[in-house]
Each structure stands twice: as structure tokens, then as C-alpha cells.
Design brief:
Strand order of the largest sheet: 2-1-5-4-3
Pfam families: HATPase_c, HisKA, PAS
Organism: Crenobacter oryzisoli
Helix content: 40-55%
Strand content: 25-35%
Largest sheet: 5 strands, antiparallel
Enzyme class: transferase
EC number: 2.7.13.3
Number of domains: 3
Structural class: alpha+beta
CATH topology of the largest domain: Heat Shock Protein 90
Order of helices and strands: EEHHHEEEHHEHEEHEEHHEEH
Keywords: ATP-binding, Hydrolase, Kinase, Nitrogen fixation, Nucleotide-binding, Phosphoprotein, Transferase, Two-component regulatory system
Shape: elongated
């Protein structure tokens, strides 16, 4: 399966296949093996079209290129894989070699889409942060006056105890608004960094979640204990994990399984900055999944899937993660929701032994 004429294609990062008009694979370079998650011997046993659940766009592309003796280009093509639940999101170029052979270049678009999505989320977060900060300050200023006026009114109504209930309501609601404003302003305050063992953070959150939900909840640990410590704000990291775990518990109504996973990620790019080493933290649950109605706006402030929710948990979580130079993303369908947080290690952190 490796004629010498194709030897130069072995070194390419771009996945390349050479196929006959019926889909028989004549050659596959190593990059295409990685993309299709199949070795050469396995690829040789199957026509290319048999690898996909819906191969019609691929069949048409090859047929068009061969019949017109000209390259055929598809800039955005999604091909569901037959042997897994995943799909290839690629840019496809088909170039005829002769009447029966075509060279296929399959350039994955996932990384480009991920970078574009990260930039979109970063811009969205910056706009949200400015809006929230301005709004919170405008709300905070009159709150002290409202509460002070309620206290004075309560003093004046000392001989009317039946009206005290109303002044109590005013004071309690002012306190509730104050708490809300404090939460809105929390990401903009200076954070205190130190060496943090991420597993100490996870264990603390695990204890809190199990204490709050005594029956029906299982939290599984899947830790890489060789990870070095982070230089981070421990309280903010606790809040990040706690928000994600509580959301999972509430989505499952307190009955289900959550898996906490830590791994090292190498050579990752976050907001166009390359990091040699990063922490990959995954929080996975087997709940019903995120509703489609809020999926695209889940990190927006005041967006929530629960009637009693404030819609601030994920907004604050995203803000704290971004303050640490990291990123957060999610994958969700019924029975599986996974939030993945990437936090880069500093160069000097990566060389330390774990604490």
C-alpha cells in the first residue's frame, strides 16, 4: 500500500488519500491514518465510502473531479463516521491523477473552528465584563441609601409594629441586591495567587457536594497525581469547580454520577498563545444535557435553565478561568455533559515536582 511514487506524501501534515473511482484506497499517508483513526491495513480492507454513514458528498466529489478532469474543492464538509459517534469536519480537495485515480486532501477544520470560537467567547466575555461592571456600580450606589432610609423609617414607625414587616422586606431585598452586585463585581477585584494543588481544590468541592446531596450522588475521582502545582487564586478555582459541580448536581436532581478528571495537556493554544504545558480539568455528568435553547448563550449573564437560578454561575466561572489565562468549553448531549477547563502552567511551574 506504499508505492514509491507516493513516498513524498509520508511527510505531510495534511491527510492525503489516493482512491480509485469506486472508493478503493490505494494509498493513505500517516496523517490520514490519524484523522480516520484506522491503520493502513484496516483502510486497505474497506472502500473509503464504507467508512462514513453518509458518503454521498464524497462519492459526488470524486465522480465530479474524475469526469471533468479537474480539481474539485469543498470548503466545508461534515462526514459522520460509521465506526464512531464523531464526524469529520473538513475542507476537501479532490485532484484527478488519471481516469480512475484521485488524490484527496482532507484538511480538518476543527482546530480553526475552535480558535474562532475561543476568540468569539473572549470578545463576548470582555463585552459582558464591561457591561456588568458598569451596571453593578450603577445599582450599588443607591442601595446604601435605600437600606438607610428603610432603617430610619423603621425607627420612625416604632409605635406601629404592624408596619415593621414592610421595612424588613425593604432591608432584606436591599441586602439580596447587594449580594447580587457583590457577585457581579467579584471577577473585577484583585485576586491573590499562590501555589495551588488542583486536587486539594477538587477534594474540597467533592466534600461540599456530597454533604449537600446525601443520597443518590456519586463523584468519581480520575486524577493524574503527577501534575505540578498551579500558580493561581485558590478561592477562585474552588468557586469555578463548585459552580460546575453544583450545576451538574442540579441538572441530575441530585441523583447521578459526576467524574472529576485531571490530565496534563501539552502544546496547547489558548487565545492564540502557545503553552507547552497546561492542566486539563474535565467535569463530566450523566444528566439530561444542556437544553438547546440556551446552549449558544450559556456563558451569558442572567441565562439559566432553572426558574430559581440567577444565571451568574457560569458567567463568573468563565471570568475566573479567563483571569488565569485559561479557557472553558463544553460538550453536551442527553446522558453526557462535560465541561473542560484548560489552565496553563507557567514555565517554572512545569519543572516543579507535584506537591
Amino acid at each position: 500500500m506504499l508505492p514509491s511514487v507516493y513516498a513524498g506524501l509520508e511527510l505531510l501534515d495534511t491527510p492525503v488519500l489516493v482512491c480509485q473511482d469506486d472508493g478503493t484506497i490505494v494509498y493513505a499517508n500517516p496523517a490520514s491514518e490519524n484523522l480516520l483513526a484506522l491503520g493502513r491495513k484496516e483502510l486497505a480492507r474497506h472502500p473509503l465510502f464504507a467508512l462514513f454513514a453518509e458518503p454521498a458528498p464524497l462519492v459526488n466529489a470524486i465522480a465530479t473531479a474524475l469526469s471533468h478532469h479537474a480539481s474539485f474543492i469543498e470548503h466545508d464538509l461534515e462526514l459522520p463516521l460509521l465506526h464512531s459517534d464523531a464526524a469529520l469536519h473538513i475542507a476537501l480537495t479532490v485532484t484527478p491523477i488519471d481516469n480512475e485515480l484521485a488524490l484527496l486532501e482532507l484538511r480538518p477544520l476543527d482546530q480553526q473552528l475552535k480558535i474562532a470560537n475561543e476568540e468569539r467567547l473572549l470578545l463576548q466575555h470582555q463585552a459582558n465584563r464591561e457591561l456588568i461592571r458598569n451596571l453593578a456600580h450603577e445599582i450599588k450606589n443607591p442601595l446604601g441609601g435605600i437600606r438607610g432610609a428603610a432603617q430610619l423609617l423603621e425607627h420612625e414607625l416604632a409605635d406601629r409594629p404592624e408596619l415593621k414587616e414592610y421595612t424588613e422586606v425593604i432591608k432584606e431585598e436591599a441586602l439580596r441586591l447587594q449580594s447580587l452586585v457583590d457577585r457581579l463585581l467579584a471577577p473585577h477585584r484583585r485576586h491573590h495567587v499562590s501555589e495551588v494543588n488542583i486536587h486539594e481544590v477538587l477534594e474540597r468541592v467533592r466534600s461540599i457536594a456530597l454533604a449537600e446531596t446525601r443520597e443518590g450522588l456519586t463523584i468519581v475521582r480520575d486524577y493524574d497525581v503527577s501534575l505540578p502545582p498551579l500558580i493561581a487564586d485558590k478561592e477562585q478555582l474552588i468557586q469555578v469547580v463548585l459552580n460546575l459541580v453544583r450545576n451538574a448536581v442540579q441538572a441530575m436532581n441530585g441523583r447521578g454520577q459526576i467524574v472529576l478528571t485531571t490530565r496534563v495537556a501539552r502544546q496547547v493554544t489558548i487565545a492564540r498563545v502557545r503553552h507547552p504545558l497546561a492542566l486539563r480539568l474535565a467535569i463530566t455528568d450523566n444528566g439530561p444535557g444542556i437544553p438547546d435553547a440556551i446552549r449558544e448563550h450559556i456563558f451569558y449573564p442572567l441565562v439559566t435553565g432553572r426558574a430559581e437560578g440567577t444565571g451568574l454561575g457560569l458567567t463568573l466561572t468563565q471570568a475566573f478561568v479567563h483571569q488565569h489565562g485559561g479557557s472553558i468549553e463544553f460538550d453536551s448531549h442527553p446522558g453526557h455533559t462535560c465541561f473542560t477547563v484548560l489552565l496553563p502552567f507557567r514555565d517554572d511551574e512545569a519543572t516543579r515536582k507535584p506537591s
